[in-house]
Design a protein that fits this description.
This protein is an alpha/beta fold and 245 residues long. It has a single domain, classed as Rossmann fold. The chain contains nine helices and seven strands. Helix 4 (96-104) links the parallel strand 2 and strand 3. Helix 2 packs parallel to helix 3 (72-81) and helix 6 packs antiparallel against helix 7 (188-200). The model is unreliable at 238-245 (pLDDT under 50).
Amino acid sequence: MIPDLLNRNLVPEWMDSPDLDEREHRRALAGLRRVNRICNPAVPIASSIRKMAQRRGMKELSILDVGCGSGDIAIRIQRDLNRDFVCHITGWDMSPVAIETANERVDSNSRIRFQRANILEPNSQARETYDFVYCSLFMHHFDWDESIGVLSHLKQLSRVSVLVDDLCRSKLGWIAAKLGCWVLSRSPIVHFDGPQSVRAAYTTSEFQQLAVHAGLSNGTIRKHWPERFLFLCEANPWMTTSQTT
């Protein structure tokens, strides 16, 4: 039975539990990697970054992934962008298990690093800024006021653009998450968290209002498969490369 999706239903996801068994956590992360291979949110994110960077004549990019999980999206984005740019990516996540898993997947010579950080805790925020700052499947974890805070911090950390990729709260989205998570993973955590993420997600109109409150009123939203949206807010497009570094 499809739940009521008129309003957000924000409840803690199992993956966010501090008492989560490490083995089950890693199992869930593996399930999410399979989901991400099918949904592939890295493609629209990398494509948008490439277009903006080429338009600005950029050759070297610094990118921050907030809420990186086990790093699958960051790794894919770097692989895609490395064909055209020198691409440095930093991934933040507050879970030590996720960060350990992500770092196990990259070698020490790569231009990608993962570190534990919570964007809502000022002491965890680096003073460093990045050309591009993005998050994927992250915003639906927060209530309205927290979401405004997260978006404001993303803006402060970015020199060129903020990108947010997330789920659309819809009946089709809930059905897709329910079926997809059951097919692609045996983890009960993924089975619960996937459909629940849709119930907690924003509609595109809600997110547009949220962005305005966070000072990102010139952002645009476009939907993409499967029932997701990509929000993109670019700094002054005529700014020169020297002004962004």
